[in-house]
Amino acid sequence: MSDFHNRSQLVSTRRSDYVWQYEYYDDEEPVSFDGLKAHRYSIVIGFWVGLAVFVIFMFFVLTLLTKTGAPHQENPDLAEKRHRPEGRLVDINGHQEENEKAFSRPLLDGSPSYFNFYISEEDQAHKKRKLEDKRSSTKDKVGRHLCSSEIEEMHEDIEESGGHQPLNGLIEESKTDRECAFLSHFNIPNFVNLDHSSTLGEDDLLYEPSMILERQSQAHNAHCDTY
Amino acid sequence: HLLTSYSTLKSKRTINTTAMNQTDCPEVKVPFLVFFTVGIISLAENLLVVVAVIRSRNLHSPMYCFMCSLAAFNTIASVTKTWENLMIVLADAGHLEKRGPSETDLDDVMDSLLCMSFVGSKSSFLAIAVDRYITIFHALRYHNIMTMKRTGVILGLIWTLCAVLAVLMVKFFDFKFIVICFTVFFIISLATICFLYIYMFMMARIHARNIAALLGGGRDRSQHQRRWGSNMRGALTLTILFGAFVVCWAPFFVHLIIIVVCPMNPYCECYRSLFELHVVLMMSHALIDPAIYAFRMAELRHTFRKMLFCSGWKLCL
Where are the membrane-spanning stretches (chain A) (predicted)? Predict the structure, then answer.
């Protein structure tokens, strides 16, 4: 497979003397550069222009996906809820059955519809919070800490999978409460082991949306405590 | 040895080098120092990732294992490339005999390692994408689907496959077949990764909007702004991920294709004259990989800080 041709006329201008040949690479007929119609680097230029166009096109497609509408139209009930931040808890509980009917799926379905799971879990979390307002806040916080560490790990995984800044918002806004409630309710042992891997407060990006939910839940706790 | 034969992969010059035509495409030479620097830096980064993941117990999760595997393959690639360049420089300076048996054997070994690291890094990208997919779409069953044992099995499979493929490729198959195989594998892995990430991105965006709509709460304006901003960031991240992959690997593959398809064409010749630039691009992908994948994880950065800035190992556990 390796033949050596002494390309002496080329050796002096080359950095390396390694010469290996294969059958269709004919050494005796050098490439002739006469009579080129287009610019000699036209393939190079064409390739890089094509690559740049592809990358920019991909970016625009992604931003377009960002801007164009979601397939689900918002419920008029949901739209109405938006204007009542204080009574939000009650509203969500009030609409809980509807939402569950509309979106509920078995919890461990593993269905690709992440959204459905979130909606039903969100409602359950809020229901739990309302009904168990006597539950010690310490336990909640510990649970949240453990859950947060696990969620942190997932958040980091997801954050780096590209377009998941929105998913960060998604997760921070819904999972922190919902899944913590879910996890502590179902007592999944795996999630407890990761408490030492917690990186709370490490990364602002992950925490920026979560602060809002923290504040909200504190507001709700305060609200419940006044009863 | 076919892959390291720079002479055949590089451009073919016209026979009268004494009278260089204006239409000639001179070979673009990249100084050895550039190769060496890129190789050393990428080696350092990837080795850091590997060591951090292995040493720190809380990074023993499937995600980090796949990143460790990717970093290990990149380490092998940068070591091999740097070593090869070193050998070429030494050979040019006359310290090494180019056709000696030990050199050709070494050449074979380096080619196998390069093949292995290429296939391995692509497989690791695929594994990371699939892992992220499962993380998102089967979130609660993630720990049942992706146990550490299965991760170990998957990584073992990837490494074994790469090693076997590398040895086979270099020993038994001819160049054309290798080129076709690599190109097909490259395109398949690119398409799969592209599909997985874009699907994740789309679903995440849809879900984010719906969850935000459900949570509602009178913070419409700022929320919409924030979501738009974060979506833009997501799009930018995805673009960087794919853009880097494509920009770094495509030139080299087009080079391989051009060798097979049009070895005598002068236009193709001019493309081939940029071979060293394309190799540098390929090596720089190993350099920017940790920046795009590993260093973006807060947990890993935290571990690095502990590793690098702690005075004693025992104190910093």
Answer: 41-65
